[in-house]
């Protein structure tokens, strides 16, 4: 394996599957089966999952809702997704812990960095929920922060719309778009490439955290990344 400890960032929309919103159980089960294979290799695995399939804070704010309130609602949506993924993993025999930045003792453990690292060392999959616990920060920024805190070797940024990396433009609308195999953090920022928000990209640059952007819904791709196969785009 190319990495000992990884953090996988999934958008909430990755769980939608064939629907327009919500959680598609077959898609959830398939993602869980790939994570089971990953855990079986001994790679310590943490996840941050968004909540856009249920509620997106920024969208709520643009429609007149208070931004802080909208962001807290988005954080709660990530907790729903985290619980769903935990259930799917445990049904496949994978020991999993949800650690939430907002205290919810009945459904998750509170986020404590040392506890998270200990779970990983014991071979459990750790799902970080509720973002950073603060409004105005995206789950992309959460992924960067948690990856640094647990000393992950890489952030695996999973796309879900058939786009298998970073392109010069959106390949779904521009047939002339060219895929990057490797690109620097500063070029991502300067070119306005929307793979993660600028706060997360800057944080990764300052902490020397590489990012691999790839199609997470293509079967076997997670394993291919971890054995060092050249798929997707590396940002470093």
What does this structure look like?
Helices cover 37% and strands 19% of the residues. With 236 residues, the protein is of the alpha/beta class. It has one domain (5-235): Acetylglutamate kinase-like (Carbamate kinase, 3-Layer(aba) Sandwich). A 9-stranded mixed beta sheet has the order 4-3-5-2-1-6-10-11-9, with helices on both faces.
Which helices and strands occur, and which strands form pairs?
Elements: E1 5-10, H1 25-40, E2 44-49, H2 57-62, H3 67-91, E3 96-100, E4 109-110, H4 113-121, E5 125-129, H5 139-149, E6 154-159, E7 166-167, E8 179-180, E9 182-183, H6 185-190, H7 198-206, E10 211-215, H8 221-226, E11 233-235
Parallel strand pairs: 1-2, 1-6, 2-5, 3-4, 3-5, 6-10, 9-11
Antiparallel strand pairs: 7-8, 10-11
């Amino acid at each position: 394996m190319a990495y000992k400890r990884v953090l996988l960032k999934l958008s909430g929309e990755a769980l939608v599957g064939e629907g327009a919103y919500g959680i598609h159980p077959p898609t959830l089960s398939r993602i869980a089966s790939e994570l089971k294979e990953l855990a079986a290799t001994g790679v310590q695995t943490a996840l941050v999952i968004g909540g856009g399939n249920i509620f997106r804070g920024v969208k709520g704010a643009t429609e007149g809702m208070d931004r802080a309130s909208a962001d807290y609602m988005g954080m709660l949506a990530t907790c729903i997704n985290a619980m769903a993924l935990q259930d799917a993993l445990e049904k496949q025999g994978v020991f999993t812990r949800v650690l939430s930045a907002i205290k919810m003792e009945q459904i998750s453990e509170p986020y404590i960095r040392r506890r998270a690292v200990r779970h990983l060392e014991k071979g459990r999959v750790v799902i970080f929920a509720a973002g950073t616990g603060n409004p105005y920060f995206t789950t992309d920024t959460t992924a960067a922060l948690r990856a640094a805190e647990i000393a992950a070797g890489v952030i695996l940024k999973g796309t879900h719309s058939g786009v298998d990396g970073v392109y010069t433009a959106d390949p779904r609308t521009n047939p002339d778009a060219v895929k990057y195999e490797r690109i620097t953090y500063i070029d991502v920022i300067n070119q306005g490439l929307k793979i993660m928000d600028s706060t997360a990209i800057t944080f990764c640059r300052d902490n020397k955290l590489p990012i691999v952007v790839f199609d997470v819904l293509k079967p076997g791709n997670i394993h291919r990344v971890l054995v060092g196969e050249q798929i997707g785009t590396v940002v470093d």
